[in-house]
Known about the structure:
Blueprint: H1 3-8, H2 19-26, H3 35-61
Protein name: Phage protein
Organism: Paenibacillus radicis
Amino acid sequence: MTHETQNQQGKTISVELTINEALALTGVRFRENHQLEVDAMSKIKRSLEDQIIHEANRKTIQ
């Protein structure tokens, strides 16, 4: 694990999920709508990417 990765372990992100999306991520299966889990994971990935890109841009500017 790199020093930069260790520094990011304590950081937090916020993601707004619907109740059903959150339930899907905990393992509840919606037989008619697998897309809930897919959408929730996409929101989390987008938020992580935004956070990482923001951090990288901030470091290059300084």
